[in-house]
Amino acid sequence: MVTAIVLIDIEADRIPEAAQEIANLPGVEQVYSCAGDVDVVAVVRASTHEAIADLVPGHISKVPGVLRTITHIAFREYSSRDADDAFSIGMQA
């Protein structure tokens, strides 16, 4: 499974509608409106890099109001639970 984080700039008056349209696309797992350099961040998962390459320019970028996307491909996932589990190995109560 390939995970991508997509940073999305959207016309100001279309942010809520565009974000919901993006969230409804197959392969889009989470969409967040945010403050900062971009308007929306989407977490996308697909079976192949080619599927990401189709989803972002072929669907996300074509949502009305979307001005620009920047896509980051994730290599590895980390979580606090993973770190907690690693540090607790061999420690039993």
UniProtKB/TrEMBL annotation:
Record domain Transcription regulator AsnC/Lrp ligand binding: where: 6-77
Species, as recorded: Nakamurella multipartita (strain ATCC 700099 / DSM 44233 / CIP 104796 / JCM 9543 / NBRC 105858 / Y-104) (Microsphaera multipartita)
Gene3D superfamilies registered for this protein in UniProt: 3.30.70.920
Family matches, as SUPFAM superfamilies: Dimeric alpha+beta barrel (SSF54909)
InterPro entries: Dimeric_a/b-barrel (IPR011008), Tscrpt_reg_AsnC/Lrp_C (IPR019887)
Spans through the membrane: none
Highest taxon, organism lineage: Bacteria
Name this protein carries in UniProt: Transcriptional regulator, AsnC family
